Known about the structure:
The protein contains 1 helix and 5 strands, in the order βββαββ. By secondary structure, it is an alpha+beta fold. The chain has one domain. The protein has a 5-stranded antiparallel β-sheet.
Amino acid sequence: MVDIRVYTVIIIEKDSKFLVGKEMLSNSLKWSDSPYDAWKTRKKDKAYIVSEKVKGNRYLFNPVARQARPMKIPDNT
């Protein structure tokens, strides 16, 4: 039995669009309406850096379960 949690990734959302990546020639950002098209990572530090640069929100996305939810930021105070 496979644990579907292993498919959970972090994606970036902004203005109801999901970051796909940068376009090669123009260097502009490409966005999509679908979380399935989104740039994906499992590394929290990388997702934090990218979301800060684009001023977007980090989401946990599991394509198997078809769920996306905001990634909670731990309170370190």
